[in-house]
Amino acid sequence: MLGRATPGKGSAAARIGATAFGRREYFLWLVALLFASQVLHLPAGTTGTLGHDLVSAFAAKTMFYYLAWLSVAWLLFDSEDTRPASLSDLTVAAAVGLANMLPSSSLTWLSTTGVAIYLWATSHEDRNQQAAAAVLLAVAANGFWAPRVFDIFAHGLLRLDTALVGSILQATQPGISWHDTIMSAPGGHSILVFGPCSSFHNISLGLLCWIALTKLARTAWVAGDAVVAGLVALVVIGLNTARLYLMALGAEDFQYWHAGFGAEIFAWATTGAVLLISAAGIQLTGRTQ
Amino acid sequence: MNARAMRLILGGLLVATVVLRISAGPTENLDIRAAIVDVLTRQGHTVRDDAPDRVGEPLNSLFAAFQGCESPVQIMPVTLSVQEGAAFDATVPADYHRRFVYLGRTWPTADRLGIRLEWLREKTLSTLGLSRFVPIPTALLIAAPPDCKAADRFDWSAVWTRTTADRLAAATPSSLAGALRISHHY
Q: Distance from B41 to chain A by nearest Cα, in Å?
């Protein structure tokens, strides 16, 4: 969209405004570039045929990821920022463009983080842009920062997971023991708690869903948001703890909840619970701007 | 700046990004097991894979014969944070000498911070095109029988080099199966 002239200004200013490039459109272009760059990083193991590779690339992302990008685009489209793009905006665009032409996926995520911070820092008057920045930051947190932070503290977090589930198991099931990140049931069945099984692994994805939905409904932050976010995290941890508990009971239970239909039940239950809490949170904390 | 010119520039950047991403193919990657087999067999060692159907699962080792070693050397791909650590006692013989190898460095114990810093350093260099390694997030636990000096002398860093990755990429047909993964991430 063209940079809109401020009403009441002189004809020269109006003319400049009419041909200037507005920040609203500028950010829409920028997020389109970031989205394309992220999604088209083809996952390893693709076949080499473009159609299949693209389907694989799109399918490798979760629905919450697409929901978040939709939220970003919607919020930016709804923005009322009439200011023309500045020289610093153009510098950021050039840097982002260059970074995303390099093969490293880390640079795509780093530039997403950079754009989110830049959007937030330069849009204090526009609540839609502020909200879009928050969702964009959540996208980067879920896709890049959270897995790295988790990885750094993985050993400690996995031990915490095991201690939590192991203690519940010991209190409720006879003959079960645990140490470090291993839980053992009678009959020789032992499980090792590994990164992807961790209760803490999916918190950022749950929070991404919550923030995308909440910011679509209401751009302003309210005190109740922290409670809803905490509840989302607790439910993700709770459901995964229940899954680990069931997997530790025996070999058949492990197969069912780890790779069988139980894994699907768990995935959909967690998805449903996060959506439900986010929607209920919006209702309870209000939809107003 | 003129709106039409800006649209042309940003549209050009978007198209260039899409074209570069698609033409670049899959993100830089390295099949660690194939790389281990490749590097070892090129130097005359025989490699045994006891569970080829469990590729990608934790604690799944390869075994290589080294001259002068009474039994095979165990090579286990591990995560950079060595999440598998608690299970080593159950999967590696007690009298074996263990060490951890990642890119150009070796540690006698699971130095999680050291391994992570090595990854960070080489990842940064790799992004700038200055690293000889493909810094995938997989290290190796090398467990050798007592008095097996040959495994200590072996240059394990060759597993992660670009030369190895390029050789494997050239040898691997692009039609390797890649099942469609609809992921919930839960």
A: 24
